[in-house]
Write a structure and sequence with these properties.
The protein is of the alpha+beta class. The protein has two domains: 32 residues; 92 residues, Immunoglobulin-like (Sandwich). It has two helices and seven strands, in the order H-E-E-E-E-E-E-E-H.
């Protein structure tokens, strides 16, 4: 029996089976993930906000980052970002610069597939 015959008869079917199992596992995990949009509601403080940095943490790992800075003399607008979530519950850590004053806000978030999660921040920014 040559090396080619050994590969063709024994190793190739095992490698094929392992590849099918890995693809099936990835397909199942993809269905467990949810897609959501996170909206940071700055409220009346929006004209004074110079920059926003946000991190979304789930299951002890950072799964999304967001950064937005206002152009000189302009308002920052409504910060929003999309995320692929491996779990429904997580923690949003937001750093906001309001006219040179740094504010750090931590909020718990809950999201399901296709949700738009609005996180009000106005009370912490005034």
């Amino acid at each position: 029996m040559t090396k080619y015959d050994l590969f063709r008869r024994r190793i190739a079917p095992i490698a094929f089976g392992v590849a099918i199992a890995v693809m099936a596992r990835q397909s199942c995990q993809k269905q467990e993930q949810a897609h959501a949009t996170i909206v940071l509601d700055l409220g009346a403080a929006a004209p004074d906000v110079r920059s926003v940095d946000a991190e979304l943490w789930m299951n002890g790992a950072e799964i999304a980052q967001f950064h937005r800075a206002a152009l000189a003399g302009r308002a920052i607008g409504t910060p929003r970002f999309d995320a692929v979530l491996p779990a429904a519950d997580g923690e949003l850590r937001v750093d906001v610069d309001v006219h040179g004053t740094h504010r750090h806000v931590v909020r718990a978030v809950h999201a399901v597939e296709g949700a738009t999660v609005t996180v009000p921040l106005e009370s912490e920014l005034r």
